[in-house]
Amino acid sequence: MELNEAQRKRLRGRAHDLHPVVMIGQHGLKPTVLEEISSALDHHQLIKIKLNVGDRDLRDEMIEQVTQYSQSQLIQRIGNVAVLYRRNPDRPDILKEAI
């Protein structure tokens, strides 16, 4: 499902007070880290991840890998922090709650 700009804006507002639930460090993306991100998305639907990687291009590449693996959407990236969203059909839709 592709999100429109109003939905993205709503999700950015909800993500403002969130703290990163997963931190990706110098060892990069391991299968366990990807599984943890997927699990966090199942539970929360909207999460922040922190990428402690120095190079911007490498950060963008890692975020792309995470979104492809987890089938999530990048809502926002500011510096080392990315906000990801994936709808969980078994939980109430946070987009509808935010209205």
UniProtKB/TrEMBL annotation:
GO terms for molecular function: RNA binding. Residues 1-97 form the CRM domain. The keyword Transcription does not apply. It comes from Thiothrix nivea (strain ATCC 35100 / DSM 5205 / JP2). InterPro entries: RNA-binding_CRM (IPR001890), RNA-binding_domain (IPR051925), YhbY-like_sf (IPR035920). Coiled coil: none annotated. This is CRM domain-containing protein. Gene3D superfamilies: YhbY-like. Keywords: RNA-binding. It holds the Pfam family CRS1_YhbY.
